[in-house]
């Protein structure tokens, strides 16, 4: 290979690196700005995350939280701001990733990739909403039911949660549900790539159910309510994935039939 050929291949590489740097800078700036905004209103966001606890307790006045180290609530607010910044900046970051990858894709590949780019945050938000309105209130009711009133020779046992541990519980559940709600995206992508088909998914259904409950047991707190609340929607999403994969196979068969007829 001549020096001119080496220079010719080096130039596109430098252009790609420059573009990658530009995309990374924009993504980081979006995250930093979102972090600053979320940190300035971290208290309000935390109060919003307390709503499931309030639903379980019956009122906001019945809730007592504490922090046991001077810096604990400050660190909790930083974690909360990072959590919120990840949510807010994700659409822009995903858009930057798509713009970087799209020029290297064929037109039909871009049209196939775009729905998954849209479906991923939508399904994640659905998982987060399920946590907020269903799973978290159920879990908190379960935890509150373990309290013990004092008297008659029994000690009083009252739940006084730490702010950091409550936030960790909420974030863990949101991430767990958000990831598991990506099941249709993952399975349909594998089907498009030809690794699986609807018949394979149907034949492996019983194993999938066992795996789903095992993953739910690992990702959620050690209580049956949270585990079942995560496992059941994931199983339903698995069934929905089978339906979507069947539609993909049907469209693929129609396209192949049209090509043969031509």
TrEMBL record:
Domain of life: Bacteria
Main subcellular location of this protein, as a coarse class: membrane
Keywords, sorted A to Z: Cell membrane, Membrane, Protein transport, Translocation, Transmembrane, Transmembrane helix, Transport
Leader sequence residues: none
Positions of transmembrane segments: 28-53, 73-93, 113-135, 166-195, 207-222
A GO biological-process term: intracellular protein transmembrane transport
GO molecular function: proton motive force dependent protein transmembrane transporter activity
GO cellular component, one term: TAT protein transport complex
Protein's cellular compartments: Cell membrane; Membrane
Family: Belongs to the TatC family.
NCBIfam families associated with the record: tatC
Function noted in UniProt: Part of the twin-arginine translocation (Tat) system that transports large folded proteins containing a characteristic twin-arginine motif in their signal peptide across membranes. Together with TatB, TatC is part of a receptor directly interacting with Tat signal peptides.
Assembly mode: The Tat system comprises two distinct complexes: a TatABC complex, containing multiple copies of TatA, TatB and TatC subunits, and a separate TatA complex, containing only TatA subunits. Substrates initially bind to the TatABC complex, which probably triggers association of the separate TatA complex to form the active translocon.
Protein name: Sec-independent protein translocase protein TatC
Lineage, broadest ranks: Bacteria, Pseudomonadati, Pseudomonadota, Alphaproteobacteria, Hyphomicrobiales
């Amino acid at each position: 290979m001549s020096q001119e050929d080496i220079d010719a291949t080096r130039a596109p590489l430098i252009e790609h690196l420059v573009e990658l740097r530009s995309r990374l800078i924009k993504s980081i700036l979006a995250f930093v700005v979102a972090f600053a905004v979320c940190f300035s209103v971290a208290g309000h966001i935390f109060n919003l995350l307390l709503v499931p606890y309030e639903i379980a307790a019956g009122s906001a006045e019945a809730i007592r939280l504490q922090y046991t180290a001077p810096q604990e609530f400050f660190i909790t607010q930083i974690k909360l701001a990072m959590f919120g910044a990840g949510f807010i900046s994700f659409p822009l970051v995903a858009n930057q990733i798509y713009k970087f990858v799209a020029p290297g894709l064929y037109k039909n590949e871009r049209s196939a990739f775009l729905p998954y780019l849209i479906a991923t945050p939508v399904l994640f938000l659905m998982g987060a909403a399920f946590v907020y309105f269903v799973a978290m209130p159920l879990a908190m009711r379960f935890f509150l039911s373990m309290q013990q009133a004092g008297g008659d020779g029994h000690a009083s046992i009252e739940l006084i949660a730490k702010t950091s541990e409550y936030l960790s519980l909420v974030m863990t559940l949101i991430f767990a549900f958000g990831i598991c709600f990506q099941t249709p995206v993952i399975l349909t992508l594998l089907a498009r790539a030809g690794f699986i088909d609807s018949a394979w998914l149907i034949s492996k259904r019983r194993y999938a159910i066992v795996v789903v409950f095992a993953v739910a047991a690992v990702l959620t707190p050690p209580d049956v309510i949270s585990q079942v609340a995560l496992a059941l929607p994931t199983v339903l999403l698995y069934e929905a994935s089978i339906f979507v994969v069947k539609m993909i196979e049907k469209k693929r068969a129609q396209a192949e039939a049209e090509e043969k007829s031509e």
